[in-house]
């Protein structure tokens, strides 16, 4: 049984991004990039299923321009067996297009599970897993916090608005990860060395027959309305006075 | 032409009642300029449909009431949405867990690129949405004929009920053909939803939130919750507090939790990481209590107290009781 894990290269979660003064986007030159944190959780879950003897192979796939292979290498260093790189000229391919590309990869690879992060922390879209599941006609479980894989189905506990919900899906299926599914491992130095020898298969969007033209035209990117620091108060009594004056109590 | 077609708003509800975020999403749906129809999908959901029919500006309520729609599993609900979408220029829903799961399926099956988390409707095809945890705002034109949008409800005021006794008509819609087939491949096993007398996070006027510094679930009960109850507030938490098991997952406020904008947000022992700020920085008044005067939360707080939350919170509770007496 094979597990496919799509991973995305994003600005590291610790970086405070800056909007370009001309409104054309955010500053990405010389900025630390990492694997999307939710995708690390997805890789970790796939590896644990493999280590538990429930999966035989973990394949990491990413879609993006030069250096995207670094992110695939990160997955390989964590323990994924091999990689697939759908090489594009630009970053920022829209989720609908990513889902179409992934569908082609799924058709070629035949995995039983696809595990994705629930959202990428750059565009914050929260769409790709659901779109892929719909295009494949496979069942989905988003926001997974617990995954129990059986022979014919998978039971997934999900983080929903009021608490937790458990679903049972037939296989094959698409899952997306939430924060509390697991704590991803760090790659050890020997594993980083080993990962350098693992294969990464390169493909082009044309090979997969998918048109990359975006559907959303980005008109501008701007700074959000700022907040300025207020005042420090000395006591609870003083605070309550201020809150009464502000009319919020 | 797509833009002369009405807008379909998908209601957030629990069958018995309409969730308040629906009335906020309605405000965004009306801003598209076309008549708004509301879909209520569930099992035994007539009560929610009746509440939806009372909201101002709803031209018609569609009620899809069937066992296949219990718990609003994504596959059958999306199939219904796709079947109905033919007659609509835009399909809109609040960004809740249910609709975050369903809407991208509808979008993909319609071959439309969804616009997630709309915070402003600039024109019927132009929208503002936050990216990078709200540290930048992107303005996009959606070029697909049909629009599929999820709405960040904290950014829109709620639409009220229509004046007088008028209610929109409620029309029953048949389950879409593929519903049963899809449902068979994913099924509901169970859920663990805590009943709470407190207001819901996304609807609360006041929120009291605790961070890692609260230290335990017992301290949430003993320290944070009494303050919330004194204020009639909802309780929130940082990711660190949820990860540590001090607070349940549905209390998490932030980039990847709930996005809130109450009148008053009180952050107790929360450092103010960008991922947390993403979920609360549009609150009207922010209060922070933190031992560390350099904590980033103070950069967004209107009122800050540098101190130990275990001393400040009981004192605050006493002062509030006095003020309310
Ligand atoms: C992919 C991703 C998504 C994330 N999503 C979210 C999200 O949605 N929401 C979220 O909140 N975080 C999120 N985070 C986590 C975020 O980066 C921070 O780690 C988290 O918000 C920190 O929580 P905290 O402020 O409670 O803990 P800490 O950062 O540890 O802060 C604790 C604070 O308590 C203060 N303190 C200690 N003792 C006391 C005391 N006795 N009295 C008063 N103050 C005291 C300290 O000075 C400190 O400022 C996410 C991270 C990642 C990588």
UniProtKB/TrEMBL annotation, chain A:
List residues of the Electron transfer flavoprotein alpha/beta-subunit N-terminal domain: 23-212
Q: Which GO terms describe its molecular function?
A: electron transfer activity
Cofactor(s) essential for the protein: AMP
Q: Which Gene3D superfamilies match?
A: HUPs
In the record, biological process GO terms are: carboxylic acid catabolic process
The record's annotation in CDD domains points to:
ETF_beta (cd01714)
Summary of the function given for this chain in its UniProt record: The electron transfer flavoprotein serves as a specific electron acceptor for other dehydrogenases. It transfers the electrons to the main respiratory chain via ETF-ubiquinone oxidoreductase (ETF dehydrogenase).
Q: Which family does it belong to?
A: Belongs to the ETF beta-subunit/FixA family.
Q: How does it assemble?
A: Heterodimer of an alpha and a beta subunit.
The protein's name is Electron transfer flavoprotein subunit beta
According to its UniProt entry, this protein's organism is Starkeya nomas
Q: Taxonomic lineage per UniProt?
A: Bacteria, Pseudomonadati, Pseudomonadota, Alphaproteobacteria, Hyphomicrobiales
Automatic annotation (TrEMBL), chain B:
Q: Does the keyword DNA-binding apply?
A: no
| Domain Electron transfer flavoprotein alpha/beta-subunit N-terminal, chain residue ranges per copy | 7-192
Keywords on record: Electron transport, FAD, Flavoprotein, Transport
Tell me the superkingdom of the source. Answer: Bacteria
Q: Which Pfam families does the record cross-reference, listed alphabetically?
A: ETF (PF01012), ETF_alpha (PF00766)
Check the record and name the InterPro entries matching this protein: DHS-like_NAD/FAD-binding_dom, ETF_a/b_N, ETF_a/FixB, ETF_alpha_N, ETF_asu_C, ETF_asu_C_CS, Rossmann-like_a/b/a_fold
Among SMART domains, the record links this protein to: ETF
Family statement: Belongs to the ETF alpha-subunit/FixB family.
The protein's name is Electron transfer flavoprotein subunit alpha/FixB family protein
Report the source organism: Ancylobacter moscoviensis
